[in-house]
Every structure is written in C-alpha cells, then in structure tokens.
Amino acid sequence: MRKAKLVTGLLLGGLVVAWLPALVPGRTDAAVRAGQTTLLAAGPGRELASAGVQLGFTGQVKLGKASAIPDWPGAPITQAGDGSVYFVEGPTVYEVKGVTTPVAVLHASGTVLAVAADSSDLYVEIGQKIDDYSLARKTLSRSWTLPSIVKRVTQAGLLLGPGVIWAWSDWATDESGFEYASIVEIPATGQTLRVIADNDADPVYMAADASGLYYESVNTKATSHLTYLAHVRANGVKTPSKPLDIETFSPLALGPGYVAVFGTEGAQNTPYLDTYSTTTLAELASPKLSFTAADAVGTPEGLLAVDGTVVAFVNQLTGVLGTGTLVPGTWKLLYGNGVSAITSYQGTDYLVRLG
Question: Which of 120, 146, 217, 337 has its CA 20 to 30 A from that of 27?
Fold first, then answer.
C-alpha cells in the first residue's frame, strides 16, 4: 500500500480512509475527540459485510519510551476479554483500564518475556518458568517449569485456551537470527505439561480461541522445509494442514469459522491472504492483496489488518478492503471487548483505543 501524507479524507492506494488526529503532543483527549474526522465509507465496489462498521477514536494512553517496549508484534503486551491491556517493561507488568494512566500490578523476580490475562488471572513467563497470579489478590497462585527442550529462552509468548495455556519459546538473538520455536501446553489446574512443537513452529504469529491453538509450522525433516498450518485442540491432539503455497512467519488471525494467514509468494514477495477452515484446515480462498500486513486480528465485526499506517477491515475471501483508519506508527493490533492499536510516535509508545 502506498504511503501518503497525513491529511483528512485521504485516498490511500484506492482505499478511502480518514486520519484519527491522535498522538498530537500537547493536545488533550477532549481536544483530540473534538477534532476527530468522520470515517468515510468504502468506495464503490468495495462493499462487504464489515464495510459499514466504523472504527472511531475513543482515546489514547501514553505507555512510555519506545525503547522500553520492543516495537514488534511479538512484544509482551496483551488485551484481556474485558478490554484491559497489560504490557511489560523489564520485570514490571502494567495494566491499562480504558484510557486511564498505566498502573503497575506486578513486580516480578526477573525480566518478563511474555504476558497473558483473563478475567481472574495474570500469567507471566520469566525464563523457563511460568507464574500464575490472582488479579484480585495480587498473589502467586501456581508456577510451572518448562521442559528441558526449551533452553535459554530469549523470546516467548502465552496464549489462553479452554482450561489450558500454550507457551511458545525460542532462543533467537541478534547474532543467531531467526530461530524456530517450541510450544508447550500447560493445564491451567494441573502440572503435567505436554510438548506440542519441538523447534519447528514459527514464533510470534499464533492465535487461540475455544476451538484451540493455530500456528504456522515447518517440516524440518523435509529437504524443502515445507510449511503448513497446525491446529491443536485443548486435549493436545494436533492436526496439520496440507503444505502451504505461501511463505509464512507472517500475521495470522482467527475469525468465525476461518483462520487467516497473511503471507507472500514468489521472488517479488507478492502479498496474499490465505484463509482456511478452522475445523478441517481446508483452504477457503487465496486472494492477492494490495498491501503487506504488519499485523492482523479477528473481531466480531470482521478481519482487521494494518500495514503500519492504515488499520482496515479486509474481506477474508476476496482480500477487498473495507473502511480504513489512518493510525501512523501502528505495529500491533489487539482485541478484547474492543480494538486497540499500539503505535510509536516520536520515540514514545501509545495505546490507541478504536471502537
């Protein structure tokens, strides 16, 4: 998608969008809301189920210096089902309710690599240990130690399912470059851990809901390193898809009945959106895209993606863009009782609430 200057009513690569005048130094939330532009509808021929849904700016929160939070989709930041956002700076976990100032809710014993939360518990990963804290009492409820296949963890993530926690970990560094991840399934009320993936999963880009965990993987034993989509149910049963046509390590999102995988094909890295059935992993569609997604998230209103500048609804079967919102510097999308964008502006990270 072509870049353009920030102007109201911008036509960006054929998509009509409107700039949310957020992230303006010295302006209060009230002033920002007063200056908010009205989102423009999708143009002719761009109608889709979610085209009538308009993301409005409901507020912003300053999170801190951009250097304190890694600006990439794998950063330790999450949004719970009630809309509360949790993010990490070193050993400290902060909570943001609505558009209130972040409040420290946990000072852990070491650097927190991953965080997840539900209505009652806060889960953090520190090295090879995962701790479960009660949000109400702010006390440690239980802990788990990851198995020996997980060594020298440098990057990690936690995803919640029905009665289980899925923990991915890898040991990539600036010197080593990309490393495949391992995934461990942890029962929320037990101690028996199950290895789901042993150094053959793409890190970062995973999604989970009541139907299970979905992630991109690779057959490391094949000479061509074929990639595929994997579905893991809460009972540990894993189902792989047929080999994928696209290059992965790219955004993945869950919607009603489908898994959306943003990837590229060919020497020109042409962007495509491949969608698969959540039950059979059969391919449903594979449209070419006019942009490269930096992150994506599924919502009840439709599939949302961002190219770093524009947050827009995308039809999961045709790749057609719906309504779009210009939110410069966005590097992560979150969903939980509302949409949030994490952005960087002039060396500072912000939480922008979109609704």
Answer: 337
Sheet hosting strand 85-89, strand order edge to edge: 77-79, 85-89, 92-96, 103-107
Q: Which residue has the higher pLDDT, 150 or 303?
A: 303
* Pair 171, 113 in one domain: yes
Cα–Cα distance for residue pair 292/272, rounded to 1 Å: 8
Longest dimension (CA), the chain: 59
Same domain, 75 and 126: yes
Whether 327 and 274 share a structural domain? no
This prediction's pTM: 0.84
Q: What is the DSSP letter of 291?
A: S
End-to-end CA distance of the chain: 24
Q: What does each C-alpha distance from 44 to 10, 14, 322, 324 come to in angstroms?
A: 16, 11, 11, 14
Could you tell me if 199 and 277 lie in one domain? yes
16 forms beta bridges with 11
Interval 22-79: pLDDT, tens: 443 333 333 333 333 322 233 222 223 344 455 788 899 999 988 788 777 889 999 9
Work out whether strand 295-299 and strand 302-306 pair parallel, antiparallel, or are unpaired: antiparallel
At 130, list the tokens: 């995962």
- Is the domain of 19 the same as that of 96? no
28 and 75 assigned to the same domain: no
Same domain, 33 and 158: no
Give the phi and the psi of residue 87 in degrees, each rounded to 5: -140, 165
Q: Could you tell me which residues are beta bridge partners of residue 302?
A: 299
> Tens digits of per-residue pLDDT, 72-88?
788 999 999 999 999 99
In terms of domains, do 325 and 269 share one? no
